[in-house]
Write a structure and sequence with these properties.
Distance between the termini: 100 Å
Number of strands: 7
Number of helices: 10
Number of domains: 2
Largest sheet: 5 strands, mixed
Shape: elongated
């Protein structure tokens, strides 16, 4: 009887240790699963928001191109007007996709709502443009065209273009807020994981002490604990990999695998105040004709071919970003002078304007670009820097395209 009682007494620490370890394992699995789920949800939410807003910005750029074509009298004005309406339908679809996302912060929703309000104002101004065109004769005569062009140039500069720029900047600000929210959630999860790890470690040490009371079970308990810690490290490594993938996704263009607009902001924002550097942007003239003629899949393959060629030929001279659609940005290395940069810019223009074989078809489009010899303090932020570059790029296209303009900072 005494031996049986002593055996039970000897077993109690082991039983207690086993219970403690079982609770630790269950709690650890629960919290690790919870943290992993939250990180996956954060990644999906960020990706969904980026896709919706980036597509809206792309559609907005297409609309602006149609508006400029209408004002400049390039192509079929009614066709451009119908295309702009189709782009607005796509923007409305993107809005619904964004609003269906769960977990978006109130700040991001508010900024997105303001952006869409500006977009609606922009659409209303374009309707006014259509009415002015119809009042001018709808392109039925040279006189009506001249009357339309003279009135619309002022209307575009004063009313329409500022709304387009504001809407685009507010959409980008929405993405910035979503990225900040994601970073805060990731940091919060990391802090929570550290706390949980600390609690698990404390409980594990107590369990080990309890198991250590019985000498015969000490080795077994120690091996179990080491195995458990190994599992925790593996899970931790997987979580870190997941977070890294989410971060890479937020800063990478999925199609071309180049850095995107947000990576550009991260890379050069701190350089604007003190550095001088050379930067250029390029895109294809009338790229939409490729999608209209061959389809979007072909257009994607064309962009991939261009991106691969640019990386191979100029990746050692500049950091290359695919900032929107078919628009590429080149931030040249510090050791490259202005004259060298201008030479490389001409080479980039030649490469992008050259024929490309895509899916057994040879296609060729002219390209336009702009280059900026940036001096410290020229711009307050990356947005204003890109506005200057895009303005010079648009001027190049308005002057016939297939050329490179230099930004003149006054």
């Amino acid at each position: 009887m005494a031996d049986k009682k002593r055996s039970i007494n000897h077993s109690r620490p082991y039983i207690l240790g086993a219970i403690v370890l079982a609770l630790v394992t269950a709690a650890n699995m629960f919290f690790v699963t919870l943290l992993y789920t939250r990180n996956v949800q954060t990644s999906k939410r960020t990706s969904g928001a980026m896709q919706s807003v980036n597509r809206m910005n792309s559609e907005l750029s297409e609309i602006n191109g149609d508006v400029l074509s209408i004002i400049a009298g390039v192509g079929n004005r009614r066709g451009h007007a119908n295309a702009a309406r189709a782009h607005f339908i796509n923007i409305a679809d993107c809005k619904e996709d964004f609003e269906d996302l769960e977990g978006i912060s109130d700040e991001a929703k508010t900024r997105f709502k303001h952006a869409y309000t500006v977009l609606e104002a922009y659409q209303a101004k374009l309707e006014e443009l259509t009415q002015v065109w119809n009042a001018a004769g709808g392109g039925e005569s040279d006189i009506s065209d001249k009357a339309f062009g003279s009135s619309m140039s002022a209307m575009y500069t004063q009313d329409i273009y500022p709304l387009q720029v504001t809407a685009s900047e507010m959409l980008r600000a929405t993405i910035d807020i979503v990225n900040n929210d994601t970073a805060e959630m990731t940091a919060k999860n990391a802090r929570l994981f550290i706390i949980i790890e600390g609690l698990m470690l404390a409980v594990a040490i107590l369990g080990e002490i309890a198991v250590f009371i019985i000498a015969k079970m000490a080795k077994k308990a120690r091996l179990e604990l080491e195995e458990r810690e190994k599992s925790l490290r593996e899970v931790d490594a997987k979580l870190k990999t997941t977070r890294q993938k989410a971060s890479d996704l937020a800063l990478t263009n999925i199609l071309t695998n180049m850095k995107n607009r947000y990576a550009l902001d991260n890379d050069i924002s701190e350089r604007l105040e003190a550095d001088r550097f050379n930067i250029a942007v390029f895109d294809m003239d009338n790229f939409r004709s490729i999608n209209d003629t061959y389809g979007y899949d072909f257009g994607d393959e064309y962009l991939i071919a261009i991106a691969d060629k640019l990386k191979n030929d100029f990746g050692s001279s500049a950091e290359i970003y695919n900032i929107t659609g078919n628009e590429f940005c080149f931030v040249f290395n510090k050791e490259i002078s202005e004259n060298q940069a201008m030479g490389i810019v001409q080479s980039i223009h030649a490469v992008m304007s050259s024929p490309f074989e895509v899916l057994n078809l040879t296609v060729q489009l002219p390209a336009s670009g702009s280059v900026y010899h940036y001096l410290p303090g020229d711009c307050l932020n990356v947005n204003s820097l890109l506005v200057k570059l895009d303005t010079a790029l648009r001027n190049a296209k308005l002057n016939g395209g297939n050329m490179v303009n230099t930004v003149v900072d006054i």
